[in-house]
Amino acid sequence: MLFKNISLVDENFNIKKNMNLVTVDEVITYIGSEVPQEYNGEVYDGNNKVILPGFYNTHCHIPMTLLRGYGEGLPLQRWLFEKVFPFEARLSGEDCYWGTMHGAIELIKSGVASFTDMYFFIEDIIRAVEESGLKGNISHGSTFNPDIPDFYDLKAYQDPYRLLKIYNTKASGRIKIDASLHAEYTSNEAFVRQVAEFAKENNLIIHTHVSETLKEHEECKQRHGLTPFAYLNKCGLLDQPVVAAHCVWIEGEDFDIMKEKNVTSVHNISSNMKLGSGFAPIREMLDKGIRVGLGTDGASSNNNLNFMEEIHLASIINKGVNRDPEFLQPSQILRMATENGAISQGRFDAGKIRVGYKADLIVIDMDKPHLQPVFDVLANLVYSAQSEDICLSMIDGKLVYKDGEVLNIDVERTVFESNRIKDRILSEI
To answer: Are residues 74 and 40 in the same domain?
Structure first.
Protein backbone atom coordinates (compact mmCIF):
# COMPACT_ATOMS: atom_id res chain seq x y z
CA MET A 1 0.00 0.00 0.00
CA LEU A 2 1.14 3.56 -0.74
CA PHE A 3 0.28 6.15 1.91
CA LYS A 4 0.44 9.28 -0.21
CA ASN A 5 1.00 12.87 0.90
CA ILE A 6 0.73 12.13 4.60
CA SER A 7 2.31 13.61 7.74
CA LEU A 8 4.58 11.07 9.38
CA VAL A 9 6.02 10.48 12.86
CA ASP A 10 9.58 9.52 11.92
CA GLU A 11 11.91 7.13 13.76
CA ASN A 12 13.14 9.98 15.99
CA PHE A 13 9.55 10.96 16.84
CA ASN A 14 9.62 14.14 14.80
CA ILE A 15 6.89 15.15 12.35
CA LYS A 16 7.60 15.17 8.62
CA LYS A 17 4.93 16.60 6.34
CA ASN A 18 3.93 15.67 2.78
CA MET A 19 5.60 12.27 2.89
CA ASN A 20 4.98 9.03 1.03
CA LEU A 21 5.30 5.59 2.60
CA VAL A 22 5.09 2.21 0.86
CA THR A 23 4.53 -1.20 2.43
CA VAL A 24 5.12 -4.51 0.68
CA ASP A 25 4.14 -7.76 2.39
CA GLU A 26 5.06 -7.34 6.09
CA VAL A 27 7.49 -4.41 5.92
CA ILE A 28 7.95 -0.75 5.11
CA THR A 29 9.90 -0.56 1.86
CA TYR A 30 10.01 3.17 1.09
CA ILE A 31 9.75 6.51 2.90
CA GLY A 32 10.30 9.75 1.03
CA SER A 33 8.95 12.99 -0.34
CA GLU A 34 8.58 11.60 -3.88
CA VAL A 35 6.12 8.98 -5.06
CA PRO A 36 8.02 5.92 -6.38
CA GLN A 37 7.39 5.89 -10.15
CA GLU A 38 7.34 2.10 -10.33
CA TYR A 39 4.58 1.74 -7.71
CA ASN A 40 1.24 0.49 -9.10
CA GLY A 41 -0.57 -0.87 -6.02
CA GLU A 42 -3.29 0.45 -3.71
CA VAL A 43 -3.05 4.15 -2.82
CA TYR A 44 -4.30 5.71 0.43
CA ASP A 45 -4.88 9.47 0.45
CA GLY A 46 -3.05 10.92 3.45
CA ASN A 47 -4.40 14.45 3.18
CA ASN A 48 -4.85 15.93 6.69
CA LYS A 49 -3.83 12.62 8.27
CA VAL A 50 -0.88 11.47 10.39
CA ILE A 51 0.76 8.06 10.28
CA LEU A 52 2.62 6.73 13.32
CA PRO A 53 3.88 3.36 14.60
CA GLY A 54 1.41 0.90 16.07
CA PHE A 55 1.30 0.73 19.87
CA TYR A 56 2.70 -2.01 22.13
CA ASN A 57 0.62 -2.84 25.20
CA THR A 58 3.31 -4.37 27.41
CA HIS A 59 1.16 -5.72 30.25
CA CYS A 60 -2.26 -7.25 29.81
CA HIS A 61 -4.50 -10.12 30.85
CA ILE A 62 -6.65 -10.05 27.74
CA PRO A 63 -9.41 -12.57 28.66
CA MET A 64 -10.22 -10.46 31.73
CA THR A 65 -12.61 -8.50 29.55
CA LEU A 66 -14.97 -11.19 30.88
CA LEU A 67 -14.54 -9.75 34.40
CA ARG A 68 -15.02 -6.10 33.50
CA GLY A 69 -16.70 -4.38 36.45
CA TYR A 70 -16.59 -7.47 38.69
CA GLY A 71 -15.35 -7.08 42.27
CA GLU A 72 -15.28 -3.30 42.28
CA GLY A 73 -13.96 -1.19 45.14
CA LEU A 74 -11.59 -3.71 46.73
CA PRO A 75 -7.84 -3.47 47.33
CA LEU A 76 -5.64 -5.75 45.22
CA GLN A 77 -5.28 -8.73 47.56
CA ARG A 78 -9.01 -8.96 48.43
CA TRP A 79 -9.98 -8.29 44.82
CA LEU A 80 -7.78 -11.19 43.65
CA PHE A 81 -8.51 -13.79 46.30
CA GLU A 82 -12.19 -13.05 46.98
CA LYS A 83 -13.41 -12.23 43.48
CA VAL A 84 -10.99 -12.80 40.59
CA PHE A 85 -9.52 -16.21 41.44
CA PRO A 86 -12.93 -17.85 42.16
CA PHE A 87 -14.32 -16.48 38.87
CA GLU A 88 -11.27 -17.56 36.90
CA ALA A 89 -11.43 -21.08 38.35
CA ARG A 90 -14.63 -21.57 36.35
CA LEU A 91 -13.28 -20.38 33.00
CA SER A 92 -12.75 -22.82 30.14
CA GLY A 93 -10.46 -22.58 27.15
CA GLU A 94 -13.40 -21.59 24.96
CA ASP A 95 -14.27 -18.84 27.43
CA CYS A 96 -10.73 -17.47 27.19
CA TYR A 97 -10.95 -17.57 23.40
CA TRP A 98 -14.02 -15.31 23.45
CA GLY A 99 -12.56 -13.09 26.17
CA THR A 100 -9.47 -12.65 24.00
CA MET A 101 -11.56 -11.82 20.94
CA HIS A 102 -13.42 -9.24 23.00
CA GLY A 103 -10.15 -7.71 24.19
CA ALA A 104 -8.74 -7.77 20.67
CA ILE A 105 -11.57 -5.51 19.51
CA GLU A 106 -10.58 -2.88 22.07
CA LEU A 107 -6.86 -3.19 21.43
CA ILE A 108 -7.19 -2.93 17.66
CA LYS A 109 -9.59 0.02 17.84
CA SER A 110 -7.12 1.90 20.06
CA GLY A 111 -4.13 1.33 17.79
CA VAL A 112 -2.38 -1.62 19.46
CA ALA A 113 -0.29 -3.80 17.13
CA SER A 114 1.08 -6.19 19.76
CA PHE A 115 0.60 -6.97 23.44
CA THR A 116 2.35 -8.84 26.24
CA ASP A 117 -0.06 -11.13 28.06
CA MET A 118 -0.11 -13.39 31.11
CA TYR A 119 -3.02 -15.76 31.64
CA PHE A 120 -3.95 -19.43 31.15
CA PHE A 121 -5.54 -21.57 28.43
CA ILE A 122 -2.90 -19.91 26.28
CA GLU A 123 -3.53 -22.11 23.24
CA ASP A 124 -7.07 -20.71 23.04
CA ILE A 125 -5.74 -17.19 23.52
CA ILE A 126 -3.27 -17.73 20.69
CA ARG A 127 -6.04 -19.01 18.41
CA ALA A 128 -7.98 -15.78 18.95
CA VAL A 129 -4.89 -13.59 18.53
CA GLU A 130 -4.03 -15.23 15.22
CA GLU A 131 -7.58 -14.82 13.92
CA SER A 132 -7.76 -11.18 15.00
CA GLY A 133 -4.58 -10.13 13.19
CA LEU A 134 -2.85 -8.93 16.36
CA LYS A 135 0.65 -9.87 17.46
CA GLY A 136 1.34 -11.05 20.99
CA ASN A 137 3.89 -12.29 23.49
CA ILE A 138 1.85 -14.89 25.35
CA SER A 139 2.73 -16.49 28.68
CA HIS A 140 0.98 -18.82 31.11
CA GLY A 141 0.86 -17.18 34.53
CA SER A 142 2.53 -19.51 37.02
CA THR A 143 1.76 -19.63 40.73
CA PHE A 144 2.92 -22.07 43.38
CA ASN A 145 0.43 -24.85 44.06
CA PRO A 146 1.11 -26.84 47.26
CA ASP A 147 -0.76 -29.81 45.75
CA ILE A 148 1.58 -29.75 42.71
CA PRO A 149 4.74 -28.11 44.08
CA ASP A 150 7.02 -28.87 41.13
CA PHE A 151 6.80 -26.22 38.39
CA TYR A 152 7.57 -28.83 35.73
CA ASP A 153 4.40 -30.74 36.62
CA LEU A 154 2.16 -27.74 35.95
CA LYS A 155 0.41 -26.65 32.77
CA ALA A 156 2.24 -23.35 33.35
CA TYR A 157 5.34 -25.24 32.17
CA GLN A 158 3.86 -27.92 29.91
CA ASP A 159 1.76 -25.68 27.66
CA PRO A 160 4.45 -23.04 27.00
CA TYR A 161 7.11 -25.70 26.47
CA ARG A 162 4.99 -27.45 23.85
CA LEU A 163 3.90 -24.26 22.13
CA LEU A 164 7.25 -22.48 22.04
CA LYS A 165 8.52 -25.21 19.72
CA ILE A 166 5.73 -24.26 17.33
CA TYR A 167 5.73 -20.48 17.56
CA ASN A 168 9.18 -19.29 18.62
CA THR A 169 10.72 -20.95 15.58
CA LYS A 170 8.39 -19.27 13.06
CA ALA A 171 10.11 -16.70 10.89
CA SER A 172 7.10 -14.37 10.88
CA GLY A 173 7.02 -14.27 14.67
CA ARG A 174 3.54 -12.84 15.15
CA ILE A 175 3.13 -15.05 18.23
CA LYS A 176 5.96 -15.39 20.73
CA ILE A 177 5.86 -17.60 23.82
CA ASP A 178 7.25 -16.06 27.01
CA ALA A 179 7.87 -17.50 30.45
CA SER A 180 5.95 -16.10 33.38
CA LEU A 181 6.02 -15.81 37.14
CA HIS A 182 2.82 -14.31 38.51
CA ALA A 183 4.56 -12.65 41.47
CA GLU A 184 6.82 -13.15 44.46
CA TYR A 185 3.84 -13.45 46.82
CA THR A 186 2.24 -16.30 44.87
CA SER A 187 5.41 -18.41 44.75
CA ASN A 188 8.33 -19.63 46.83
CA GLU A 189 12.08 -19.59 46.23
CA ALA A 190 12.37 -23.08 44.76
CA PHE A 191 9.50 -22.31 42.39
CA VAL A 192 11.04 -19.00 41.27
CA ARG A 193 14.33 -20.75 40.57
CA GLN A 194 12.56 -23.34 38.43
CA VAL A 195 10.83 -20.65 36.36
CA ALA A 196 14.19 -18.92 35.93
CA GLU A 197 15.79 -22.21 34.88
CA PHE A 198 13.04 -22.88 32.31
CA ALA A 199 13.41 -19.39 30.83
CA LYS A 200 17.19 -19.62 30.63
CA GLU A 201 17.21 -23.08 29.03
CA ASN A 202 14.80 -21.89 26.33
CA ASN A 203 16.05 -18.29 26.02
CA LEU A 204 12.69 -16.79 26.94
CA ILE A 205 11.54 -13.36 28.05
CA ILE A 206 9.96 -13.47 31.53
CA HIS A 207 6.75 -11.58 32.33
CA THR A 208 5.99 -10.89 35.99
CA HIS A 209 4.39 -8.50 38.51
CA VAL A 210 6.75 -6.65 40.86
CA SER A 211 6.08 -4.29 43.79
CA GLU A 212 2.55 -3.44 42.72
CA THR A 213 1.36 -2.59 46.25
CA LEU A 214 3.06 -1.39 49.42
CA LYS A 215 1.72 -4.44 51.28
CA GLU A 216 3.23 -6.85 48.76
CA HIS A 217 6.55 -4.97 48.75
CA GLU A 218 6.92 -4.77 52.53
CA GLU A 219 5.82 -8.36 53.18
CA CYS A 220 8.49 -9.58 50.75
CA LYS A 221 11.09 -7.68 52.77
CA GLN A 222 9.78 -9.32 55.95
CA ARG A 223 9.86 -12.80 54.39
CA HIS A 224 13.23 -12.59 52.67
CA GLY A 225 15.02 -9.54 54.04
CA LEU A 226 15.08 -8.26 50.46
CA THR A 227 12.92 -6.14 48.20
CA PRO A 228 11.06 -8.10 45.50
CA PHE A 229 13.59 -7.08 42.84
CA ALA A 230 16.56 -7.99 45.01
CA TYR A 231 14.92 -11.32 45.87
CA LEU A 232 14.09 -12.17 42.25
CA ASN A 233 17.64 -11.24 41.27
CA LYS A 234 19.01 -13.55 43.96
CA CYS A 235 16.84 -16.35 42.54
CA GLY A 236 18.28 -15.84 39.05
CA LEU A 237 15.00 -14.66 37.50
CA LEU A 238 16.58 -11.47 36.15
CA ASP A 239 19.28 -13.30 34.21
CA GLN A 240 16.86 -13.40 31.26
CA PRO A 241 15.10 -10.34 29.79
CA VAL A 242 12.29 -9.41 32.18
CA VAL A 243 9.10 -7.40 31.61
CA ALA A 244 8.11 -6.24 35.10
CA ALA A 245 4.61 -4.84 35.50
CA HIS A 246 3.78 -2.00 37.92
CA CYS A 247 7.05 -1.36 39.88
CA VAL A 248 5.15 1.15 42.02
CA TRP A 249 7.06 0.71 45.29
CA ILE A 250 10.61 0.04 44.10
CA GLU A 251 13.31 1.70 46.17
CA GLY A 252 17.03 2.10 46.76
CA GLU A 253 19.12 -0.51 44.94
CA ASP A 254 16.10 -1.70 42.94
CA PHE A 255 16.84 0.96 40.34
CA ASP A 256 20.45 -0.19 39.95
CA ILE A 257 19.36 -3.84 39.67
CA MET A 258 16.80 -2.96 36.99
CA LYS A 259 19.34 -0.98 34.98
CA GLU A 260 22.09 -3.60 35.31
CA LYS A 261 19.75 -6.43 34.30
CA ASN A 262 18.11 -4.43 31.49
CA VAL A 263 14.62 -4.92 32.95
CA THR A 264 11.68 -3.29 31.18
CA SER A 265 9.31 -1.67 33.67
CA VAL A 266 5.67 -1.43 32.58
CA HIS A 267 3.75 1.64 33.69
CA ASN A 268 0.08 0.77 34.34
CA ILE A 269 -1.27 4.15 35.35
CA SER A 270 -5.02 3.37 35.11
CA SER A 271 -4.85 0.08 37.00
CA ASN A 272 -2.56 1.48 39.70
CA MET A 273 -4.89 4.42 40.31
CA LYS A 274 -8.08 2.37 40.26
CA LEU A 275 -6.78 -0.21 42.75
CA GLY A 276 -5.25 2.55 44.90
CA SER A 277 -1.78 1.05 44.53
CA GLY A 278 0.12 4.31 44.14
CA PHE A 279 2.22 6.05 41.49
CA ALA A 280 5.29 4.41 39.99
CA PRO A 281 8.52 6.47 40.18
CA ILE A 282 8.74 6.92 36.42
CA ARG A 283 11.02 9.95 36.61
CA GLU A 284 13.62 8.09 38.68
CA MET A 285 13.49 5.12 36.31
CA LEU A 286 13.98 7.26 33.23
CA ASP A 287 16.77 9.24 34.92
CA LYS A 288 18.53 5.91 35.58
CA GLY A 289 18.15 4.90 31.94
CA ILE A 290 15.65 2.12 32.70
CA ARG A 291 13.41 1.20 29.78
CA VAL A 292 9.75 1.94 30.51
CA GLY A 293 6.77 0.71 28.50
CA LEU A 294 3.03 1.23 28.92
CA GLY A 295 0.34 -1.31 29.72
CA THR A 296 -3.38 -1.34 30.27
CA ASP A 297 -3.37 -4.35 32.64
CA GLY A 298 -6.61 -6.35 32.40
CA ALA A 299 -10.05 -4.88 31.78
CA SER A 300 -11.09 -5.93 35.27
CA SER A 301 -8.72 -3.46 36.89
CA ASN A 302 -8.68 -0.67 34.30
CA ASN A 303 -11.67 -1.07 33.16
CA ASN A 304 -10.90 -0.92 29.46
CA LEU A 305 -8.10 -1.72 27.04
CA ASN A 306 -8.12 1.73 25.43
CA PHE A 307 -4.42 2.30 24.86
CA MET A 308 -4.74 5.90 23.72
CA GLU A 309 -6.40 6.68 27.02
CA GLU A 310 -3.42 5.06 28.77
CA ILE A 311 -1.01 7.28 26.84
CA HIS A 312 -2.98 10.40 27.74
CA LEU A 313 -3.31 9.58 31.44
CA ALA A 314 0.32 8.49 31.85
CA SER A 315 1.50 11.73 30.32
CA ILE A 316 -0.60 14.23 32.26
CA ILE A 317 -0.70 12.44 35.63
CA ASN A 318 3.07 12.09 35.78
CA LYS A 319 3.38 15.81 35.18
CA GLY A 320 1.10 16.37 38.15
CA VAL A 321 2.78 13.80 40.42
CA ASN A 322 6.19 15.35 39.67
CA ARG A 323 4.83 18.91 39.68
CA ASP A 324 6.69 19.49 36.44
CA PRO A 325 4.87 20.41 33.20
CA GLU A 326 8.01 19.67 31.18
CA PHE A 327 8.24 16.04 32.31
CA LEU A 328 7.28 13.36 29.77
CA GLN A 329 7.15 15.30 26.55
CA PRO A 330 4.92 13.86 23.78
CA SER A 331 7.90 12.32 22.00
CA GLN A 332 8.93 10.52 25.23
CA ILE A 333 5.52 9.04 25.94
CA LEU A 334 5.11 7.93 22.32
CA ARG A 335 8.51 6.22 22.45
CA MET A 336 7.37 4.37 25.58
CA ALA A 337 4.18 3.32 23.78
CA THR A 338 5.94 2.07 20.64
CA GLU A 339 9.69 1.46 20.43
CA ASN A 340 10.19 0.57 24.11
CA GLY A 341 7.34 -1.92 24.01
CA ALA A 342 8.63 -3.54 20.83
CA ILE A 343 12.11 -3.97 22.33
CA SER A 344 10.64 -5.47 25.50
CA GLN A 345 8.97 -8.13 23.34
CA GLY A 346 12.17 -8.96 21.52
CA ARG A 347 10.79 -7.40 18.34
CA PHE A 348 13.81 -5.43 17.24
CA ASP A 349 12.49 -4.76 13.73
CA ALA A 350 9.33 -3.00 14.90
CA GLY A 351 8.11 0.00 16.89
CA LYS A 352 9.46 2.65 14.51
CA ILE A 353 8.65 3.98 11.09
CA ARG A 354 11.82 2.91 9.28
CA VAL A 355 12.51 1.16 5.99
CA GLY A 356 12.88 -2.56 6.61
CA TYR A 357 10.81 -2.47 9.81
CA LYS A 358 7.50 -4.27 10.21
CA ALA A 359 4.55 -2.30 8.83
CA ASP A 360 2.72 -1.79 12.13
CA LEU A 361 1.01 1.49 11.37
CA ILE A 362 -1.81 3.71 12.65
CA VAL A 363 -3.41 6.54 10.71
CA ILE A 364 -5.05 9.38 12.65
CA ASP A 365 -7.62 11.64 10.99
CA MET A 366 -6.71 15.17 12.06
CA ASP A 367 -9.80 16.68 10.43
CA LYS A 368 -11.72 16.81 13.72
CA PRO A 369 -12.71 19.90 15.73
CA HIS A 370 -10.87 18.65 18.85
CA LEU A 371 -7.67 18.18 16.81
CA GLN A 372 -7.71 21.66 15.30
CA PRO A 373 -5.98 24.06 15.14
CA VAL A 374 -2.57 22.41 15.02
CA PHE A 375 0.42 24.12 16.58
CA ASP A 376 2.17 20.88 17.56
CA VAL A 377 1.10 17.61 15.94
CA LEU A 378 2.63 15.38 18.64
CA ALA A 379 0.93 17.37 21.38
CA ASN A 380 -2.42 16.97 19.66
CA LEU A 381 -1.84 13.22 19.31
CA VAL A 382 -1.02 12.77 23.01
CA TYR A 383 -3.29 15.31 24.69
CA SER A 384 -6.26 15.65 22.32
CA ALA A 385 -6.67 12.58 20.11
CA GLN A 386 -9.14 9.80 20.93
CA SER A 387 -9.23 6.20 19.78
CA GLU A 388 -12.18 7.15 17.56
CA ASP A 389 -9.79 9.35 15.55
CA ILE A 390 -7.94 6.26 14.30
CA CYS A 391 -9.17 5.62 10.77
CA LEU A 392 -6.79 2.79 9.80
CA SER A 393 -4.59 0.22 11.52
CA MET A 394 -2.15 -2.13 9.82
CA ILE A 395 -0.23 -4.96 11.51
CA ASP A 396 2.60 -6.70 9.68
CA GLY A 397 1.39 -5.04 6.49
CA LYS A 398 -2.19 -6.31 6.75
CA LEU A 399 -5.19 -4.11 7.43
CA VAL A 400 -7.01 -5.00 10.65
CA TYR A 401 -9.15 -1.86 11.07
CA LYS A 402 -10.51 0.72 8.67
CA ASP A 403 -13.08 3.49 9.00
CA GLY A 404 -14.63 2.15 12.19
CA GLU A 405 -14.71 -1.52 11.20
CA VAL A 406 -12.67 -4.27 12.88
CA LEU A 407 -11.98 -6.40 9.83
CA ASN A 408 -11.26 -9.86 11.25
CA ILE A 409 -13.72 -10.13 14.16
CA ASP A 410 -17.49 -10.56 14.37
CA VAL A 411 -18.07 -7.89 17.02
CA GLU A 412 -21.76 -8.64 17.65
CA ARG A 413 -21.13 -12.38 18.12
CA THR A 414 -18.19 -11.69 20.41
CA VAL A 415 -20.16 -9.42 22.74
CA PHE A 416 -22.98 -11.97 22.86
CA GLU A 417 -20.60 -14.77 23.83
CA SER A 418 -18.97 -12.65 26.55
CA ASN A 419 -22.32 -11.97 28.17
CA ARG A 420 -23.29 -15.64 27.92
CA ILE A 421 -20.08 -16.63 29.71
CA LYS A 422 -20.59 -14.00 32.40
CA ASP A 423 -24.15 -15.16 33.10
CA ARG A 424 -23.08 -18.82 33.29
CA ILE A 425 -20.26 -18.22 35.75
CA LEU A 426 -22.32 -15.93 37.98
CA SER A 427 -24.96 -18.67 38.20
CA GLU A 428 -22.24 -21.10 39.39
CA ILE A 429 -20.64 -18.90 42.04
So the answer is: no
